[in-house]
Amino acid sequence: MLTIGQLATYVGVSTKAVRVYHAKGLLPEPERDSSGYRRYDAQAIIDLTRIVTLAQAGVPLADIPGVLGADADSAAKQLHRIDTELRNHIRRLEQRRIRLRHLDQPDRLCLPTEAVHYMERLRVIGLSERHERAIRDGWILSYAIAPDITRAILAARTEQLDDDEYVAVLRGYDRAAEWDPDDPRLAGIAFAAAQLAQRMTVVSDLPDFDTLPSETVDILTGHQGLESPAWRRLDELVTQILTEQSGRFG
User: Fold this and answer.
1) Helix, strand or coil for residue 32?
2) Domain tally, the chain
3) Cα angle at 101 between 96 and 104, to 5 degrees?
């Protein structure tokens, strides 16, 4: 007859693990002998070995009695189900590992593949880090609240990265971010941006735009991602120029 320590040693687990299996009802707990010790027989070694084998294979403790007490066909079905659950769990863990590896790459962490490609191409233009961050955060926001429209506008923006005038306006905004809002150089950037806006696809041009809730529209059109009085002034100037041109030719 064996003590709990001897039983644990034979099977290769701790006495604490044996007590857990007792508490869970997996392993029968023998009565104490006259000396106050629990004594285990050979069957306990067999039973504990089966329990440990299933537990180490990933079978949840709650499922072990059902597997041990089932016939061959039922046990096979239960093990198949558990195997499927384990594979799904492994897949979720792998996805977490991928996200963990990308913690130092904000683009890949938060954006879909097509937006990551856009950001990679944008980086070649040579904008400031905070401007890039503002653009990236804008895409994150847009995908969160209006993914379908965002995918459509992203496709248009990606094409425009081959447009020299578009790139020139991006660089102009980048340079102007810290300028005084009364800086006379803003007028030239605003004029170029207004000319570009007349042939650009904007969010409000998309077919599904009218279906968006008003609060979503306010968020999409109101977010700049960068606190810049000069940018606010640029937006005012662009709006003014477009209004004047519309009145002149409309």
Assistant:
1) strand
2) 2
3) 125
